[in-house]
Design goal:
Elements: E1 2-6, H1 18-31, E2 40-46, H2 51-54, E3 59-60, E4 66-69, E5 72-75, E6 77-84, E7 87-93, H3 95-98, E8 105-106, E9 109-110, H4 114-131, E10 138-142, H5 148-159, E11 167-172, E12 180-182, E13 206-208, H6 209-216, E14 219-222, H7 225-230, H8 241-246, E15 251-253, H9 281-293, E16 304-308, H10 317-329, E17 335-340, H11 344-356, E18 361-365, H12 369-378, E19 381-384, H13 394-400, E20 404-408, H14 411-416, E21 430-432, H15 437-451, H16 454-466, H17 471-487
Parallel strand pairs: 1-2, 1-10, 2-7, 10-11, 11-14, 14-15, 16-17, 16-19, 17-18, 19-20, 20-21
Antiparallel strand pairs: 3-6, 4-5, 6-7, 8-9, 12-13
Helix pairs in contact: 1-17, 4-5, 5-6, 9-12, 10-11, 10-15
Amino acid sequence: MHVLLATSELNPYSKTGGLADMVAALAKGLAGPAGRGVLRISVVSPLYRGVLGSHSGIEPTPWRPAIRIGDSLVEGRFHRKALRPNLTHWFVEQPGFYDRAGLYAEAQRDYADNAARFLFLSRAALVLARHLPDPPRVVHAHDWQTGLVPLLARHEQLQGGWTQPPRMVFTIHNLAFQGSFPLSSWDLTGLPADWLHIESARHHDRVNFLKAGLTQAQAITTVSPTYAREILTAEHGCGLEGLLLKRYNDLGGILNGVDTEEWNPATDPDLPARFHAGDLSGKAVCKAAVQREMGLPQDTAVPLLANISRLTDQKGSELIASTVRALLKAGEVFQFVQLGSGERALENAFRDLARRFPDRVAARIGFHAALSHRIEAGADFYLMPSRFEPCGLNQLYSLRYGAVPVVRATGGLQDSVVDPRENAALATGIKFTPYTEAALRHAVLKALALWKDPAWLGHLRHNGMTADFSWDRQAAEYVALYESVCRE
């Protein structure tokens, strides 16, 4: 079976968040043992600025599709990179759309032509799906940027002579981001006006790319089982809970996995020392190195807390800043490191914390992939108090690197972390439920108490580091899903 994954970002070529990591790792997992040797995997994403100069092995092809955007034909070009005999990355080049400083935005402002940019990607994906010598039986589209793929395929089946289009699977990575555009943007699709209605892409008198995918795909997934249930409610459904309830029988959640080649403390080239569950001596070296790199006193006897995240309300960034401030003012002894960027006020809040508590707090505004690995390896506890979290990956990296996660019980955090109150024998972290500073403060105090009990801390660490979140297991669930939709 040939499966084509369509995505707007793909690690290591382009990335703003977990979408890039998930699709890259899923493709690798599907092409490996989980695919049982019978899957051929292709992935298509845009050729953004800098990709060719930073990555070898990407070869241009003579394939230059002319893709209709509104009344114009816009030429693109396909490039390809063969990673394995059964795994190929395709890149669609269109300098006017993708040769830019950002993937979706600059200076925190979305590009005005994002509707056209990702309509182009969706049509390019279908060009591959329809004209590759070995056409895919399944197209797996990811998030709003490829939400039009199932709708465009349906139109080509009914009115474009495509008698056997592939089956469509659509994954929601974050329902809060829907690709909502003015009604006038529908003209870019070239589809008849009567195709824009509440059972396709119309939502509150706007064109909604994500809704298009939800209405037309044969199967819908989210990135954790709990999030699949949460989005059926008004609290988390973002206005689409009614539609999702109608599609209940076609909706499921599959928890993300970890790329165990990239995230492995026993082999990670970004670490100053390696370690594993059976020998944690290297973790103390990593902790001292992070303290030094971040400008904190080198003291392995002080617990080190960390967060690596976009600084947003969704991620609980304000809760973290206020909780760290309150606990340090109360005299609690710990260090905290923050890596990330986002809302200006939150960036300034962490800068202010670092100024007020220079021996206790360090903040690096921005992102650095290698540093994120070193922080995970050096941290004793990882704070992730998300308001909502479709899956989350950093808690999985933390488990693998021996940083005990302190998380809010929502979405994938609920599914991936075991609190001692749930199962003491299998416990891996600390969970709390109310989205309040008081609840997070109480959870952090539990972590500080845990620090003083090395045997119990070691128990949680060992459980987390030996838990199986590999993509072999999760990819097998997608294989079963693909086989199921092909049987329908």
